[in-house]
Amino acid sequence: MELLVMHMEEPCFDFLRTKETLGYHAYPTCRNTSGILGFSVTVETQATKFNSELVEQKIEEFLEGFGRKMSALTEEAFKTQVTALIKLKECEDTHLGEEVDRNWFEVLSQQYVFDRLSREVDALKLMTKAELLSWFLEHRGPHSRKLSVHVVGFGEEEGDAASAGGDEEGAGPQCSTYGEVSQLTFLPATPRLAGASVITDIRAFTSTLNLYPYHKVLK
C-alpha cells in the first residue's frame, strides 16, 4: 500500500493541484484502520471556487488516469520506487523515541512483530509491477466500494446566510470541556452524485454493518 501511494504522490499533485487548480493541498494517504489497509485521496478546496461534487469527479478522473499511468510504467521506474521505499525503511532511527513508539505499538496492538520493518523490506524485494497493478485495478473495478467524505464549510464566505436559529431551545450544548462542539448539517446530494448511497445518519448507517475484531497484520 505504501508503494502504491508513493507512485501516486507526484501524479496526484500534478493533476489535481497543478492542472485542475483545485486547491493547494491535494495528496494521497496510506491508511491502516484497525489492521485494514487502504488509501485515500484528499483535496482541500475553496467552496467559493469549486463544489465538493466537482472535486470528487476530478478525483475519479485522476484515479482512472493513474490506472493507465501504472499500466504504462516501465520496470525501471517501478524498481526505482521500490528501492526508494526500501531505503526509507532501512534508515536508522534518529532518536530512541522512534524505536520505543514502534515497538510499543506492537505491544498495544498485541501483534508482537518487532521485526516488521525487515519483513516489509523482504516483501518489497519480491514485489512485482504486475502484482501492484493487479491489486489497484481489482479495487477500482465495478464491484469495488469506497467511502467519500465531503466536508463543506459554513459562513458568509461560502455564500451562506447568517443563521438566526442558533439560540433556539433544544439546539443542544454548544460547548464542552473539550471546547466548542461542531454540529453537522447533512446536505442533500446533487444530480452529480445521483448513483451514490448518501449517508445522512452516521449512527444509523454504522448500526447496519457487521462488527469485526481488530485485524492483526502478522505477515
UniProtKB/TrEMBL annotation:
InterPro entries recorded: Metalloenz_LuxS/M16 (IPR011249), Peptidase_M16 (IPR050626), PqqF-like_C_4 (IPR054734)
Keywords linked to the UniProt accession: Metal-binding
UniProt KW Metal-binding keyword: yes
Any one GO MF annotation of this record: metal ion binding
Domain Coenzyme PQQ synthesis protein F-like C-terminal lobe: 4-104
Keyword Metal-binding applies: yes
One Pfam match: PqqF-like_C_4
Descriptive protein name: Coenzyme PQQ synthesis protein F-like C-terminal lobe domain-containing protein
Organism this protein belongs to: Anguilla anguilla
High-level lineage: Eukaryota, Metazoa, Chordata, Craniata, Vertebrata
